[in-house]
Design goal:
Elements lengths: L2 E12 L2 E12 L3 E5 L6 H9 L6 E6 L2 E2 L5 H7 L1 E4 L10 H8 L5 H14 L1 H5 L10 H13 L5 E5 L7 H15 L4 E6 L10 E6 L2 E6 L1 H6 L1 H11 L2
Parallel strand pairs: 3-8, 3-9, 6-7, 7-8
Antiparallel strand pairs: 1-2, 1-4, 4-5, 9-10
Helix pairs in contact: 3-4, 3-6, 6-7
The protein binds adenosine-5'-triphosphate.
Length: about 240
């Protein structure tokens, strides 16, 4: 399998505080990798470092064989990386505007055609296409966030806690939706606390206290006593 993203020895932090230590992560072509970790583990900091929104203190980031850690965020996006923040959408823009923004760097006709495809798939969103995204339900907002992240046909989608703020029913819907789009040959790196996302994971990393404490398959994760207690004992999905 071809490697799409390769992170080595990544260090990061804020002011005097170091948050990430020697982080190594790999994502292969068409692979879905889930980055599990509790609140404050450093997941958001790591994802922001990968897309250039947070400066690195050390380490390397390669995307499809090319070193990208010195590139600006817009340059990384043009290479085919898409980032869905925890909020997912701009609440003060309309549904349509959010979708168009997701593909701002490609020809407008391409973005328009793909946005229409998504709107056909999600009649709920289509019915509210000119409404502010802030007026959507939490679940619809996430759907829009995923559509926005996918509208430019990226090679790699990086998602920060797509489950945040969602009821368990909507978490299930988002997982289902992602399962559907996984078949398109896109790779996903999803930071989550919710183990429901393991249903669509090919591999898992656990980030704890800023270090990768586990790396392996979902099956291996389930067999790991300490992790089972920490994640499956409490969350029990
Ligand atoms: P959460 O699920 O709560 O978002 P996380 O795993 O994404 O957790 P981060 O948001 O990356 O974790 O935070 C890691 C650590 O860095 C925490 O101790 C947090 O307080 C700190 N931190 C995050 N953002 C900043 C910032 N802008 N300035 C200073 N410290 C920060």
């Amino acid at each position: 399998m071809q490697t799409v993203l390769e992170v080595e020895g990544l260090a990061g932090g804020y002011g005097p505080m170091q948050v990430l230590w020697d982080v190594a992560v790999k994502v292969g072509e068409s692979e879905t990798v889930v980055l599990l970790g509790p609140n404050g583990a450093g997941k958001t900091t790591l994802l922001k470092s990968l897309v250039g929104l947070q400066p690195l203190r050390g380490g390397e980031v390669a995307f499809r064989g090319e070193r990208i850690e010195r590139l600006r965020t817009d340059q990384r996006i043009r290479l085919g990386i898409s980032f869905m923040t925890e909020m997912g959408v701009f609440t003060n823009l309309s549904v349509e505007e959010n979708l168009f923004l997701g593909g701002y760097h490609q020809p407008p006709e391409t973005t328009k055609a793909r946005a229409e495809e998504f709107l056909r798939l999600f009649p709920d969103l289509a019915a509210q296409r000119r409404h502010h995204a802030g007026a959507l339900s939490g679940g619809q907002r996430k759907m829009l966030g995923v559509a926005k992240a996918l509208v430019a046909n990226p090679r790699l989608v990086i998602m920060d806690e797509p489950s945040s703020g969602l009821s368990p029913r909507f978490v299930g819907e988002v997982v289902k939706m992602l399962a559907r789009f996984r078949t398109e040959g896109t790779s996903f790196l999803i930071a989550e606390q919710n183990v429901k996302f393991l249903e669509i994971a090919d591999r898992v990393y656990v980030l704890d206290g800023g270090r990768i404490g586990f790396s392996g398959t979902v099956e291996e994760l389930r067999q790991n006593e300490a992790i089972r207690e920490a994640y499956f004992g409490l969350k029990g999905h």
